[in-house]
Design brief:
183 residues; 2 domains; 3-stranded antiparallel sheet; 8 helices; binds zinc ion
C-alpha cells in the first residue's frame, strides 16, 4: 500500500470542493441533496457515519444512501470499528481523492478526444449551447427551438467547436492544478 499522503489544509480542500467542474461531477452522482454530506467529507476527512448524519441533520439511512452512491464509483473508502459496548460495527468514511481526480480527468480526456475527432471530420462548424445544462445542437435544431433551450428555457449561446475544445482543455488544466495540492 502506498504511503499515506499529506492532508491539505481545510482552506485548500474547500477550494477543491468549490471548483465548478468538481461540483458538477459530484452533483451528478449524489444529487443536490447529497452535496452537504460531500462537503463535510471534504472538510473533515475520515468521519463516522453517525456523526455525519448528525452534522447534516439527516436520517442515518439517507446518509448511507448518499455514501453508497459515492462508494459505487469508489469515490469514498471506509474503515470500521467495533463499538465495544453493543458490539456494533461503526463505519467511518472519507473521500478517495486519487479516484476523484482520476475519474474527472478521464471524463474530460474522453470528451476532448471525441470533440477533436469531430473537428477533424466536420471542420469548424458553429453550434449552439445552453449556458445552463450544456445541451448542444446544430443550427437547424437551434432554429427549431427558437434558439432557446427546451429544458431550461434560456437563450442558447453560439459557439465554435474550437471554443469548446479550448474550454475543455482549460477545465482539464484546472483539475490538474488542483490535483497537485494532494501530491
Ligand atoms: Zn438547458
Amino acid at each position: 500500500m502506498p504511503a499515506r499522503k499529506r492532508r491539505p489544509s481545510r482552506k485548500k480542500l474547500l477550494e477543491v470542493f468549490e471548483n465548478e467542474e468538481i461540483q458538477d461531477f459530484l452533483e451528478r452522482i449524489v444529487g443536490r441533496e447529497g452535496m452537504e454530506v460531500v462537503k463535510i467529507l471534504f472538510e473533515k476527512g475520515l468521519v463516522n457515519e453517525f456523526k455525519l448524519a448528525e452534522m447534516v441533520n439527516k436520517e442515518i439511512n439517507d446518509v448511507r444512501t448518499i455514501l453508497y452512491k459515492l462508494y459505487a464509483h469508489r469515490l469514498v473508502t471506509f474503515s470500521r470499528k467495533r463499538e465495544r459496548r453493543r458490539g456494533w460495527w461503526i463505519y467511518s468514511w472519507e473521500i478517495n481523492f486519487d479516484r476523484l481526480f482520476h475519474l474527472l480527468k478521464r471524463e474530460k480526456i474522453k470528451k476532448l478526444e471525441m470533440l477533436r475527432k469531430r473537428i477533424a471530420e466536420e471542420g469548424s462548424i458553429q453550434i449552439f449551447e445552453c449556458p445552463k445544462c450544456e445541451l448542444r445542437m446544430g443550427y437547424e435544431k437551434a432554429l427549431e427551438n427558437l434558439f432557446t433551450c427546451p429544458k431550461c428555457n434560456v437563450v442558447l449561446r453560439e459557439k465554435s467547436l474550437e471554443k469548446i475544445e479550448k474550454e475543455l482543455e482549460e477545465g482539464l488544466k484546472r483539475i490538474e492544478e488542483l490535483e497537485r495540492i494532494f501530491k
